[in-house]
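INFO  loader      accepted 1 record
INFO  loader      residues=641
INFO  predictor   begin
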Amino acid sequence: MSKNIAAANGGSTAATNGSEAPVKVGFWALTLGSIGVVYGDIGTSPLYALRESVLAAVGSGNPASEPVVLGILSLIIWALLLVVTAKYVLILLRADNNGEGGTLALMALASRALGGGSGIVVLLGIISGALFYGDAIITPALSVLSAVEGLKVVTPAFDSFVVPITVVILVILFSVQSRGTAKVAALFGPITLVWFAAITVAGLWHIGQNWTVLLAFNPYHGVNFLLHHGIIGFYTLGAVFLVVTGAEALYADLGHFGSGPIRFAWLVVVLPALLINYLGQGALVLANPKSIENPFFLLYPEWALLPMVILATAATVIASQAVITGAYSLTRQAIQLGLLPRLEIRHTSESLFGQIFMPRVNTLLLVGVLLLVALFRSSSALASAYGIAVTGTMVVTAMMAIIVIRRVWRWPLIGALALMLPFLFIDVAFLSANLLKIVDGGWMPLALGALVMLVMYTWRRGSRLLFEKTRRLETPLESLVASLEKKPPQRVPGTAVFLTSDPASAPTALLHSLKHYKVLHEKNVILTIETADTPRVDPNERVRIEPVGKTFSRVVLRFGFMETPNVPKALAIARKLGWQFDIMATSFFLSRRSLKPAAHSGMPRWQDRLFIMLTRAANDATDYFQIPTGRVVEVGTQVTV
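INFO  predictor   done
INFO  writer      dumping tokens
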């Protein structure tokens, strides 16, 4: 997710942080970019998906019969056709929020359709967002481990070096994040295109050795396998899900590349390559049952093994990169939607808005990934933990899609249910099958998701309680302005801007400034920053100015949840509305609250302490809103919560 490009079918526009001229990006460039970024995860699933599915069905050391192989291949084929192609490519890519996709974008769209902050929709958004972080930690560990394990096929002597090499690659990957992904992203598409070509050629060769595998297109073989294998078949379904684990990226990257390029890349390049490679692996396993140890790399002749290990490692690094930058994007959306405290966001590109780096998120991801590698030490062990987070997100996405189809697309309820319930049933079946993995490692993404959910809920609940409490204690702005203009204090030249989350009340910083300094600036602005439930806000709708008195104005700045607020740049737009804004003659007054737990609050004491800890960890408002530090005056207050 390294590019933030406005959705369009035939071409796209790079969104920027200001009002610069947009950069047009062509359809073919977007298609190539989507092959690299969008399909990195699902494109590397052949490294482990069929192997884990067959092993789940027959166990290690046992040969797989033809009905078993055909049954598993049939499940894989129809999972790709139904879950990815039908649900995501054909349906969900149409459910965009002003061109943006992804679970939080869908949450905002569904919430707006219901007429405000629906509690159940927000809860669904929190659940799916929290589960994504579990996926963001497992994907780099599993992908890179599975690629490096190809060295064991070259020679068993590399066995003891797999984990150390994996750790080195991951540390390097996370270390270069601060440099931005613009230059690296230029290589993503071509490398991944070579990857898909390589897996297609190998698959075609082995299909030619055994045309029987083409019978797997008949869904009878998949259904028959499930009916005759009972709980084993259900457990195998959890492994089969590994083939579609990158499907959420299709929707999440909608705003980056546009629906047209994403659809074209899937239908013309990615889907055929995946189907051919899985069928080729199936043909190899039928011809040589022992090849199940690593059917992907054994597709290739001995001379091609080392080059394929190198290419697979590059492809898995690309897949990991997509998830890492996706975590940055999701975190920024969560901050703007009030689900997480402010965190530092660094822009690594002057032209592409989506090129961001978040140091704290990067560090937490690296620590989590390295812990997983150290704990599980093999892709087979880690595959047991994979799937629960993604299936949970898919279930939530299907549920919110029903709301959007009913309320936004204005379909009758029966039509919305008829369209999405079959997909919801499939998602629930996959989730249920993956829940069988809890003991084998599936607890990890659930535990991580529960922790992130707790943090999101605590921050949202605590922020609301704090807002309600401070609002009760604050003075109405209009009455204060009227009294100040009736009996004005001494005036000083310049403009004072007071930031507040409640434009109807006098900011704490204003009251304390009057109390201690006994002066008032010639011009005073009560500034509120709002986050819209759309990804971006048109620059013409960025600023709203309302006079409150002769020397007071109320200014509201609106930003989309995919934008990083830049207060000085937004206020410069106000010049068109008659306000002669000069940053060097303006002082920004901010309230810095020191929170202490109250004897009685709306949350348990432990949650109060967690909220206070999150508040202290939040990034400074001056940096977050990109206000020059030399123009800021902070006024400290102590508040109980």
